[in-house]
Design a protein that fits this description.
heterodimer; A: 124 residues; mainly alpha; 6 helices; 85% helix; elongated; B: 322 residues; alpha/beta; Rossmann fold; Alpha-Beta Plaits; 5-stranded parallel β-sheet
């Protein structure tokens, strides 16, 4: 699947679903994206430390938080990657954590430019 | 209507807050289960709650369980928010005491519809509570005068006598009977008779303190219980109650009437512990004496062998005894 196709499929970021959820409230959307820009990198850093330390409890908790944040935002693929990491952490699959974290990071790298592009397009 | 949102994740919490605010709810948003429980336990706290399943301090099912263990409080309708999908977890959530659950990310329309279900249930509860309170009032109050009925005031008197004995205080029992009431019913009719009873009830209530009891004991007989009443002052207070009936005419549909009341008074501290029925029988004997003495007066019930209590020395009670 090319990058362009993914964008159209809405799996990286389902903007239509999010707009429906906020009832087309641009101000709220902006506020949510700002919360995301602040909270997401912080939580990712904490999650990376937990994964590196093989701290299953925190890895499970933080990936759960990311899953909620990402799914509220309509970032379907990244939310699924966070869900995967959460279930591996809960199941005690220490050996698989790093791979799952890398997959989540890869999804984040696709998602963030889309959010940035939207914010630049709409508000700047 | 107030609604509580508990979610530790800021973005989802804000999204819910705005969605529900726009739907007309007064939103209280908190970050963990402990804060949620505090809000829900407040006297005027929210009765609708959206609780995230996984939260620090106390999780959603934990909040549900804690809320459900409180008794005698208004019902809280709780919806769990979960990204968990398995049947086992859904069952676990509902068995913890949640009324419903929603899977995240939520759909705004579905969320609002499910909250309306909650509101319907709360409205139903309000109606049931109101009906129960009405029944409770009717079961303990006299329909005509709204005073306590005989059963209710007897229960309260029994409890009060135990308490005053335990605390070595005195309870004054006052039994009053409207003089020549039968004549009013016979000559002016029952409607006027009822008017008189209602007016007398309100005068009796007005002449006692908020923590005293006034009940309708029988047809035109009233029972007044003066709680924790100093024996030296009881006869004076009884006299005031007697005068509150006679010192002002009662307005009725058939014109103004002058009425009087005869009273029997008993001070519990002057008596050994006896069943409430026996004490009331003694009070009734005193009332009978007041009637025999010409009505519109007060007589006290005295034990034939007084128990060892400090004698009442007020001149008024001494005068009344003779």
């Amino acid at each position: 699947m090319s990058k362009n196709d993914e964008r159209h499929s809405g799996h990286v970021w389902n903007l239509a679903e999010l707009l429906e959820r906020v009832d087309n409230d641009q101000e709220l959307l902006r506020e949510l994206l700002n919360i995301f820009k602040e909270d997401f990198p912080q939580t990712m850093r904490a999650l990376q430390s937990a994964v590196n330390a093989e701290d299953l409890k925190n890895s499970s908790r933080l990936s759960h938080t990311l899953k909620g944040m990402l799914s509220s935002l309509g970032a379907i693929r990244a939310a699924a990657a966070a869900a995967k990491l959460e279930s591996l952490s809960s199941a005690g699959e220490t050996a698989s954590l790093e791979g799952a974290f890398n997959a989540l990071e890869a999804e984040a790298r696709r998602l963030l430019p889309e959010l940035e592009a939207y914010m630049a397009e709409v508000w700047h | 209507m107030k609604i509580l949102i508990a979610d530790d994740e800021a973005l989802s919490r804000r999204l819910l807050e705005r969605t529900l605010g726009r739907a007309g709810y007064h939103v209280i948003a908190v970050e963990n289960g402990k804060q949620a429980l505090e809000q829900l336990c407040k006297p005027e706290g929210p009765r609708l709650a959206l609780l995230d399943w996984v939260m620090p301090e106390l999780d959603g099912p934990g909040v549900c369980r804690a809320v459900r263990t409180r008794s005698e409080q208004t019902y809280v309708y709780m919806v769990l928010l979960t990204s968990k999908g398995s049947k086992e977890e859904t069952v676990l959530g509902l068995e913890s005491g949640a009324d419903d659950y929603l899977t995240k990310p939520f759909n705004a329309e579905e969320l609002r519809a499910r909250l309306r279900v909650g509101e319907r249930i709360l409205l139903l509860e309000d109606r049931l509570v109101e009906a129960r309170e009405n029944m409770r009032f009717r079961a303990t109050h006299d329909q005509l005068t709204s005073l306590l009925n005989r059963g209710a005031i007897m229960d309260l008197l029994t409890r009060e006598l135990h308490r005053s004995h335990r605390e070595q205080k005195s309870t004054a029992i006052l039994l009053g009977d409207v003089d020549h009431f039968k004549r009013i019913n016979d000559t002016l009719g029952h409607i006027v008779g009822d008017e008189v009873l209602v007016e007398i009830a309100s005068r009796l209530l007005a002449s006692v303190r908020s923590y005293d009891f006034v009940g309708r004991y029988g047809g035109e007989e009233f029972l007044v219980v003066l709680n924790n009443c100093d024996p030296a002052f009881a006869p004076g207070r009884a006299e005031e109650i007697r005068k509150s009936i006679s010192n002002q005419v009662i307005q009725t549909a058939k014109g103004p009437l002058t009425l009087t009341m005869s009273l029997g008074l008993l001070l519990s501290s002057e008596w050994r512990v006896k069943p409430v029925e026996e004490l009331l029988h003694e009070t009734d004997n005193a009332l009978y004496e007041a009637k025999a003495a010409g009505r519109d007066c007060l007589r006290m019930a005295k034990p034939s062998t007084p128990v060892e209590v400090a004698p009442t020395t007020s001149p008024e009670s001494a005068r009344l005894r003779h």
